[in-house]
Amino acid sequence: MPERLVLWDIDGTLVRAGNVAKNVFAVAVEHVVGTHPGEHGVVMGGKTDPQIALEILAGMGIDARTGEGHLPVVVERLEAELACAVELILERGRVLPGAAEVLAALHSDPSVLQSVLTGNTAANAATKLAAFGLERWLDVEIGAFGSDDRERRALVPVALRRASEQRGWEGTTDDVWVVGDTPNDLACARAGGVRCALVGTGHTPVDELARLGPDAVLDDLSDVETVVKLLTA
Ligand SMILES: [Mg+2]
Predict the structure, then answer these.
(1) CA of 13 relative to ligand 1 center, distance in Å
(2) 52 CA to middle of ligand 1, Å?
(3) CA–CA separation, 85 vs 107, rounded Å?
(4) How far is the CA of 11 from the centre of ligand 1 (A)?
(5) Residue after which a domain boundary falls, among 90, 117, 132
(6) Last residue within a domain, chosen from 55, 90, 125
(7) Tally of domains within the chain
(8) Distance 181 CA to ligand 1 centre (A)
(9) Same domain, yes or no, for 118 and 226?
(10) Which of 68, 112, 127, 220 has CA atoms 20 to 30 A from the CA of 105?
């Protein structure tokens, strides 16, 4: 029975999807509102897809209530557009150094259950992971997504409940790692009472991440042996 549970953020941690997601958000918003949001400066890192969509709408001067009304259709469109953009994701994006190797190593360790904890909706997470062939190493069904709750801080309990209900996981919060690339990933881990490793492969410099005091901080995942040791120790 696996005790260790590792929950991976996707963007900036396992992969970079180029600027594809940003463009797809704009297209989805334009489809619903009728106006392209232009160069929306919304910072996407560490946020959930619904949060990003709402911030783009707000930036266009759309009031919060109308934005909420648009949200389900924007997200639906976003998921459809991203699913059609797989080739572009592959062309402009990449798997981050060591990510595939670490996932493969943990997958082969029977004491480890690993899934995702991401601001992506479940559909968008599936699109990005499948684009790079990473889903084969992840138990995606027990993950937690931006489609479960728009507040990332609420997502650790979602993953723990799924792991326990669907896989009989009986670990404690000490057995759980969240791995991410932003202060929001740390806040989410802390809210869930689990451990957190931050990697410097997103947009936040590694020294800035270190100052936040996560349980571990790494430049990237390229030192596979060290990363595996850290997450299984
Ligand atoms: Mg991220």
Answers:
(1) 6
(2) 13
(3) 28
(4) 4
(5) 90
(6) 90
(7) 2
(8) 5
(9) yes
(10) 127
Query: Based on the domain organization, do 85 and 108 belong to the same domain?
Result: no
The CATH number of residue 211's host domain is 3.40.50.1000
Look at residue 2 in the predicted model and tell me its pLDDT: 81
Query: Residue 46 has which token pair?
Result: 């560490």
Spacing, Cα 122 to ligand 1 middle (Å): 15
- Residue 173 sits at φ, ψ, to 5 deg, of -60, -25
pLDDT digits (tens, 9 = 90+) for 66-109: 999 999 999 999 999 999 999 999 999 999 999 999 999 999 99
User: What is the predicted pLDDT for the residue at 114?
Assistant: 98
Please give the distance, rounded to the nearest whole angstrom, from the Cα atom of residue 70 to the centre of ligand 1: 25
Does the pLDDT of residue 210 top 80, yes or no?
yes
Expressed as residue numbers, the domain containing 51 is 20-90
What's the confidence (pLDDT) of residue 38? Answer: 87
Q: Cα-atom radius of gyration of the chain, to the nearest Å?
A: 17
Q: Are residues 73 and 161 in the same domain?
A: no
Structure tokens at 125: 């997470």
